[in-house]
Design a protein that fits this description.
By secondary structure, the chain is mostly beta strands. It is built from one helix and nine strands, in the order αβββββββββ. The longest helix is centred in the N-terminal third of the chain and has 19 residues.
Length: about 140
């Protein structure tokens, strides 16, 4: 029993040290913000991580007050987690307001649009399960 506990602790220590070797820290005031070429002007993002195999991404994204997109879709699943402000997400003609702490999972191929209403705009974490693209919305079948 004692040997199995020691073995478990040794494995945990190795796993922990391997994980810690890959930790990346970003500081809010020193992030590099980029203007995406495939969204309307005003949006900015900071790439947190891109998976070298799937090319899925995690990014911090911010929109100014009044920012909006036309209906569009993506080739991969998208998750949005609102950190600050509000985001009005429209899917299949239904508008849902997301506030700080709320999230949405949008399956690949789902047409959607959104707007950042209010005074302060919106900041969120966005993940996409594969390469990020913005495609014209196609009608639901």
């Amino acid at each position: 029993m004692r040997k199995s506990i020691l073995l478990a602790l040794a494995v945990a220590a190795l796993a922990s040290s391997a994980f810690c070797a890959r930790v990346t820290i970003g500081r809010g005031r020193s992030l590099d913000w980029t203007v995406p070429g495939n969204l309307p002007p005003g949006a900015e993002y900071h790439l947190i991580y891109e998976d070298p195999v799937t090319h899925g991404i995690e990014a911090l994204v911010r929109f100014p007050s009044g920012y909006s997109t036309d209906a569009h879709q993506h080739s991969h699943d998208e998750t949005m987690v609102v950190l600050r402000g509000k985001l009005v997400l429209v899917v299949a003609g239904k508008a849902t307001t997301l506030r700080a702490g709320d999230y949405a999972l949008i399956p690949a191929g789902t047409p959607h649009s959104f707007k950042a209403p209010g005074w302060g705009g919106c900041e969120m974490v966005m993940t996409v399960s594969g390469p990020y693209d913005v495609l014209p919305a196609t009608p639901a079948r």
